[in-house]
Amino acid sequence: EDRARELRPEDLCAEFSKAVKLSQEHAVASQLLHSTLEQLSAAYLPHVPHLTQAQHCTIPLWACAKVDYWRGDLTNSLLQRLGQDDCGLLKQATGQTHGMLWWSLSKAPRQELAAGDGGVLHGSAACILRMPAQQLDSQACSNTLLACARLQHRHAPLLHHLTSCLVQQPDASCQALANSLYALGELAEGCGHKPRDQDLRKLAAAVLARLQQQQQQQQQHKKPARQQPQVQDGNKASANTHVFTEPALANMLLGFAKLGVSSKERKLTGCRGQPAAAGRAKAQLQGLIRTSHAGAAGDEYTAAAAVQQTCSELHLRLQHPVHAQAFVPQHLANTLWALERLRPPDSEALVQALADECRRRRFAGFSAHDISIVISAHAKMGFGEASAHYTGPQPWYAAAAKAAAASDCMQAGIGDWCALWDAFARVRHRPAPDLLRLMVQSEEELKALCSSSHAQQCSNLLWALANLGLYEQRLVDALVGRLGERLMLGKRKQRELLSNMALVNSLWALAVMGPQVLSRHSG
């Protein structure tokens, strides 16, 4: 600590970075790491009012964010220094420094950001908007877009500028492209931001070109290009900028789905009643993939071609055990969710590969939310008894139901329960009684679960139970009671509207459960 107090700001910044690097390379105990940062923070605080470079503020912030250390006064002091003189230090900062600032603050607890922000992000945004693409590398763009997604920061001029600068980078890393596509998807879903068509087309074209490069490498080496799995974001660039990691592939597909590529792609690939049109569109997509001219073919075809190539690469990775293991449960669940939204042509083999991987793992490590997504997506895509493409659906659903009963289902929300039971009803799979018993394990938990439900969710759950021939009086009573509350009670403007079909389905479900059930709830 005495030595730390004698160091210059730039030397102390190096010590902050070194501490983080050591924690990543070695299994350093969290308590020891936080103790080290506490000593560095104490030594650094006296220097903060006199700092003359923005990076001397952002590097300690980045270090704190990487190890989730937010104790003491350092964060607020650094933010106050950055905000002084109308954000004077930030006006001379590099794009990398701005990206590091945004990424760090997006990881901070909201109270830290509210207490010490002082308009720093607003000032940084103004600086970034004045920067040309030459001053904003792909990592700075992607880090800032990721931060905006985390913060749900809808600043359309900033987001458009970052996306435009990113697609102008000929050497943009695969990780930056993947992270940016993922972030844009989160922003589209969370706050309604839509990238400009020309920017999305160029981003999809860049992704497609990199995937083609990987395909060429694979053909030369007869195996998928391999790279160590990377974290979602951060300050370190990839050692191999021309390889998408498994998490990156999953996140890109999720981004495409949330950006609404699905509706455009379905329009292009035709519908089941127009096989000729579908065939022509599919041939055009394959031609675009082969010739690398997707960027000149229009927004829809470019994105659709990138989606198809991403699916192809995902399927290839899942066929190799080492690569398949790099997908965490959330990636598998999100990929299935995206496939259900996108419905790309010839994706049956990929869906089957994902189902096989989930079952091979016996759903180990899957949360209740992950399992609900996986089961629901498979059911909606026809992974059931009548499917001609898939093998062994009913044992697969049995394994999924068993995993759900053994997971953290008691912590699942009503939405996850609805997705689970809706999926089982779609494929006519009746789970073992354990799963239903979990929902009524205690009166307090059942009441808490139903009290958070909407009328449509109550109706859907009643319909699913009736279709499966299941009846649990306490659950049905709670659902019907909640349904009545949402429809009839409270002020008029707070009442929920329910479609005629949902009302009919609810009455039908009660009738199927038995005349006495319908009679008991007729009042």
TrEMBL record:
The organism's taxonomic lineage, starting at the top: Eukaryota, Viridiplantae, Chlorophyta, core chlorophytes, Chlorophyceae
Region of interest: Disordered: 212-236
Single GO biological process annotation from the record: mitochondrial RNA processing
GO CC term (a single one): mitochondrial matrix
Name of the molecule in the record: Uncharacterized protein
Organism encoding this protein: Astrephomene gubernaculifera
Molecular function per GO: RNA binding
